[in-house]
Amino acid sequence: MADIELQQVEKRFDEMFAVRPLDLTIKDGEFVALLGPSGCGKTTTLRMIAGLETTSGGRIILNGKDVTRLKPSERDVAMVFQFFALYPHLTTRENIAFPLQAEGETKSNIEQRVREVAAMLRVEPLLKLRPGSLSSGDQQRVALARALVRRPACFLMDEPLGALDADFRESMRSEIKHLHLQQKGTTVYVTHDQIEAMAMADRIVVMNQGEVQQVGTPAEVYHTPRNLFVARFIGSPGMNLVRGVWAGDHVSLPLDNRYKLPAQWQAALYGVPAENGITIGFRTEDVLLRADGPLAGTVISAGLLGSFTMLAIDLGDGQSIIEARVSRDMRVSAGDHVRFDLKPDMVRVFDSKTERAIQPA
Amino acid sequence: MAANPVVFATRVDKVGARAQFSRAVRIVLVVAYAVISMIPIFWMVTAAFKSRPDVLAIPPKVAFEPTLEGIVSLLTKRSVIPPGQEDQYRNRPDLGLFDRIMIERGQVITGPSQYTQRLLNSVIVAGISTILSVALGVLAAYAFSRFDVPGKGDWLFFILSTRMLPAVVVTIPIFLMYQQLRLYDTHLGLILLYTTFNLSFSVWLLKGFIDEIPKEYEEAALVDGYSRMQAFRKVVLPQAVTGIAATFVFCFIFAWNEFAFALMLTSERARTAPPSIPTMLGTGGIEWAAIAAGTLGFLIPVIIITFALRDYLLRGVTFGALRK
After folding, report:
1. For A54-82, what is each residue's pLDDT tens digit?
2. What gap in Å lies between CA B146 and CA B217, rounded to an integer?
3. Which tens digits make up the pLDDT trace of B169-206?
4. Partner-chain residue, chosen from A51, A87, A150, that has the shortest CB–CB distance to B235
5. With 60 as the cut, is the pLDDT of residue A136 above it?
6. Shortest Cα distance from A123 to chain B (angstroms)?
7. Interface contact A270, partner B, CB < 8 A
8. For chain A: N or C, fewer Cβ within 10 A?
9. Which residues of B touch A162 (CB under 8 A)?
10. Is the ipTM of this complex over 0.90?
11. What are the phi and psi torsion angles at A302 (to 5°)?
12. Residue A121, class by beta-carbon neighbours within 10 Å (0-12 exposed, 13-18 middle, 19+ buried)?
C-alpha cells in the first residue's frame, strides 16, 4: 500500500483548464473522496492518477516514486469504473484472473487468489457466468474483485455506485467501506453524491470548475465550509444562506430582521468592506423556533419527513427562504407567522462578494 | 368475480379478415419475388447438368436427363474425333468415366483445362487481399477510433474519396504502370490492387464497429497491467469479431467477383476465374453447359464463406440495435 502525492497537477485542453494546479497528499491507507458536480474535474484528476490521462503540468508521486510519465500498467493501481467495464467476452473467473495473467502468475497461484477474492466478495457462484447475465450489483462486486485481486498500491474508483439502483447503492456503500477497513488500501473515490462522500471518506476534496474548493474531513466540510459553494453543495439540503448588511453590532437581514452575531465575529467583520455585504449561513437543524427569537418569518410549507418536520420559512422579501428542521411534535402549518433563533456557535459568516468564509477572531 | 375467465388474449386487429388478407398478399409478393430472383440461379444449376441439345432447347426443358458433359468440358481440353475412328477410340482399354462421356459426343480428351488453375488464382488473390485489407483495416480503424490522429477528418475523407471514381476509369493508367513495374499478370499485382480497393471500405466499416466498443474496456486492461497492443488484442479484437467477419465477407465477395481489372491486368499465369469463364467457347458454338458449370464452381466458395459466417453477419447487421 502506498501514499499518493499530487504536486501542482493540472490539466488543460487547449487553453481551457479542466483541472487547475492542485496539491493534495493522500496518506497510506486513507480513503479520500473527490466530490463535485459533473464537469468539476474530479474524474480527470482520478484518470491522471491512473495514467489514463496525461498531465499538462505538475508531478504525481506514488509511494515515493514519480509516476507522472509512466504508463498505467507501470503504476500499480487498480481502477473500478462507473459502468464496471467487465470484459463481456470473458467469464467472471477470467475477468478476475485477467490482471494476474498480465503479471505472469502461475496457474495455481491465479486460481487460489481468484478463489480468495471471490469468497471475500461472495461471487463464487457466479464464476462461470459472463457479465451479461449478472445483475448490476453482482457486476459491481466482480469489478471490485478484479480490482482487489492484484493487491495494488492504491484503488481508484470512478463513481462505482452511479449505475446501481438506489436501494442497492446503500448496501454496496457499506460493503465498499467495510472492504476498505479490511484491506486498508489507499483509495481515491470519485463521486458527485455528497452523501456517499460523507458516509465513506476519511477526507473529502470538494471540487468545482476545475478548482479545489476545500479539503477536509466530512465534519469539517459540513460544519465549516470554506466558501459559499461548499456550503451549498454539502448536506441535503445545503446550508441556509441569507444575505445581509453588517451594521456595526448586528446583521441587518431582509424585512427588518436583525441578528446580533456572537462577540467573536465583531472584530473579524471590521476587515470586510461594507459594500461587499455579508451572508450568514446555518444548517437546517440549527434553527430554533422560539416565541422570543430575534428573527421572524412566514411559514410557506411544512412537511413531515419521518422523524422530523421540514419547514420552509420566508423571511419576508420573497427571496430569502430558509429551511428549518424542527421536531415533528411541533404544530406549525403553512401561513403561520413564526419567530426563531439560531444556535450561536453554528452560525457561519461569508463575504457576499468574494464568497469566502470569514474566520471568527 | 371471474365468471368468464379470459382463456386467450390476442390483438383483434391481427385476426380480422382484412388483416389476414393483407398478410396473405404480402407473403405472395415476397414469395413471388424470391422465385423470380432464383430463376437465373435455377437456370445455371440445371444448365450445368444438361446435354448440349437440352441447354439450347426452346422452350427451356425443366425435366431433362442429367449428364456430366458440361462439367467434363469445363475441366478438360478436347479435340474432335476424325470420322470413322469412333470405334477405335471406344475400344481403348484406358478409358475413364470422363472419356466415355465425351466419346459419345464425338470428342476425345487431350488434357486438363485451365479452369482449376484459374479458380485457384481467384482463391489466392481474393483470399490474401481480403486478409490484408481486413488486417490493415482493423488497425487503421482502431487508430482512427481511439487516437487524436492529426488531420483525422481529412484522412478519413481521403480514404473514402478513393471510392468515388469508378474503378474502370483508372484501368488504363494502372495497366501501363503495372507493365513498367513488372506487376502485369502477377498475383502480387492483383493482391495489391484489391487490398487498396477494399481498404477504404474496411476502414470505414470497422471504425463504425470499433466506435461502438466503449473505451473503458481497454482502459481497464491498461490499468490491469497490459500494454496498449495487448489490450487491443485481448479486449478489443474479441469484441470486434462480428464486425471483422462482416467486413471479411464483403471484402472477399468484392475481390472474388472483380472482373475489369482482372481482365486488363492478367493474361495467363495470374488470370482469375471471372474473366476466364465467359471466354469458354467450345469448338463450334458456345458451351453453355460448361459456362454454367464454371459459374456454379465459382459460386460455391462464396456460398461456403457466407454460410460459415452467417451468424456474425446477422449480428453485424443488428449490431447497433442490440447495444445500449
Report:
1. 889 889 998 888 988 898 888 889 999 88
2. 12
3. 888 899 999 999 999 999 999 999 999 999 999 999 99
4. A87
5. yes
6. 20
7. no
8. C
9. none
10. no
11. -140, 120
12. buried
